[in-house]
């Protein structure tokens, strides 16, 4: 049974910071690339970041503000979010894939395993 559980979301003012965590179980964590996606209210789920065997990747909208990392000893992937903006408000999801090709990392269909999401709200 694969399970991904996000935590760390909350309400912050614009310019503030949050660190999201995603704890994985039921899989050999080091064999999986991990991604972060978000879904703003009334909009489609969109790519935020991924950490692949070849390194980290970021959406243009978060480059320079967000940082992805992982700790394989804790089976956890993190998303550090700085300089938050109201447009960052969304439910944030983590996802896992064992695909080592890495050319479709920004697409939701690439990831067979998903967490339930954590709410991030940024006030202006």
Give the helix/strand layout:
Blueprint: E1 3-7, E2 10-13, E3 18-25, E4 33-39, E5 46-52, E6 55-58, E7 66-71, E8 76-81, E9 90-97, E10 113-114, E11 118-123
Parallel strand pairs: 2-11
Antiparallel strand pairs: 1-3, 3-8, 4-5, 4-9, 5-6, 7-8, 9-10, 9-11
Strand content: over 45%
Structural class determined from secondary elements: mainly beta
The rounded distance between the terminal residues' Cα atoms is: 40 Å
**Unreliably modeled segments:** none
List the defining traits of the structure above:
124 residues, mainly beta, 4-stranded antiparallel beta sheet, 11 strands
Explain what the structure shows.
By secondary structure, the chain is mostly beta strands. It contains no helices and 11 strands. The chain has strands spanning 3-7, 10-13, 18-25, 33-39, 46-52, 55-58, 66-71, 76-81, 90-97, 113-114, 118-123. Strands 2, 4, 5, 6, 9, 10 and 11 form a 7-stranded mixed sheet that branches. The mean pLDDT is 96.
Task: Give the gist of this structure.
The chain is mostly beta strands and 124 residues long. The chain is built from no helices and 11 strands.
